[in-house]
Amino acid sequence: MTLRFIDRIWHIRGSLALGPQQTSDAFGRLAPLFGQAGTSHDRTHDTLTFRKKDQAAQDKMSIFDGGVLQIEKGVAGPVLHYHLTSRALLFCFLAPLLFLAFGQITIALGKLDKPSTEAAGKSGAALKKAEKKDVALPQNPIDKALGSPAPEKPKKEGDAKVEAEKKKHSPTTAYVFAGIFAALYLVGRVLEDRLVKRLFKKSLLAS
Fold it and tell me: What is the pTM of this model?
């Protein structure tokens, strides 16, 4: 069961019923799909095997790297079975896991650097207590009359360092990319399954 689930991550399987007039010339009707640049294929009486390398983006099956199409006799008549593989789908599946790992590493590094960050914060607090209260920055009388807020006091070096460390060890970016690739995989896995079936059906119906 586990192996079958793993296999479905980047393998697409399906079948199409063939009409009597399509059986003898099914691969002939599908031939234009496998005559694209970067595509090579081998054909026998009932089986077609294809491989793609450096396929062009204009190729309607560019997402697939290879596959096997086979015509078998079913109970209701001949059936075209296809088994296609896609490294692009595999990459989109693995990418979220990679970015999640980056996020966890970032959190771990943040925990390791926490003592030094806390020390910087304490030293900044100690400096605040030791120094006299900061003199308020001068404000233009006109701005004051108009009700403008007073200029903010410059941040202490210790505070700036603590904030910089927090941003440095934030896993947010990694989680965002993980979500993007996860969405790409889910949409691509469902969409490509339907698109390739529609493409085969349209080619088989072409006169």
Answer: 0.71
33: DSSP letter: G
Specify the CATH number for the domain of residue 65: 3.30.310.50
Q: Domain count for the chain, please give it.
A: 2
CA distances from 34 to 47, 55, 78, 169 (A): 13, 11, 22, 49
Scan for tokens 């790992």, then name that residue: 101
Six-digit token string for 101:
């790992």
- The string of pLDDT tens digits covering residues 112-153 is 876 655 555 555 555 555 554 555 556 656 556 556 666 665
Same domain? 108 vs 146: yes
Cross-strand pairs, 49? 42, 68
Q: How far apart are alpha carbons 51 and 41 in whole angstroms?
A: 6
